[in-house]
Amino acid sequence: MSFKCKGPIGFIPINRRCNLYKLMKYCSAAGSYDEAENLLYELKGRDSSGDGELPERGLAFYRRLLACSDEKLQAGKLPRDEVEAGLREWRAAWPRLSAGGTGTAPSGAESAG
Predict the structure, then answer these.
(1) Does residue 36 register a pLDDT over 80?
(2) Considering only CA atoms, which of 11, 13, 39 is closest in space to residue 110?
(3) 102 three-state secondary structure
(4) Cα Rg of the chain (Å, integer)
(5) pTM
(6) Is the CB of residue 68 less than 8 Å from the CB of residue 27?
(7) Torsion sign (Cα): 17, 9, 76, 105
(8) Taking the C-alpha atoms of 15, 16, 18 and 23 in order, what is their torsion angle to the nearest 10 degrees?
(9) CA 17 remoteness from chain centre
């Protein structure tokens, strides 16, 4: 799978050898929320066990997006209804998030931009 994230230095082709989490953070900070979400799900596909920090990082990502204005979300090509649907899907993938997961971002977690 290949992604392109538009940032301050133009489009960056992303391949499997890159650190996907760092690229997700970059895309999120650059306002490419749709690509950041795509990368989040690529990470999920690689770590479906949910034993690490990924479930909480994903939850924190969606919560930060929900704090953004509708205009900012639209500009990032991820409208609020898609963010809300993504959050529901993310929680459903890891029931522990709904059953007392903290939802706090681990140290160094990405920002929504």
Answers:
(1) yes
(2) 39
(3) coil
(4) 13
(5) 0.73
(6) no
(7) positive
(8) 70
(9) 19
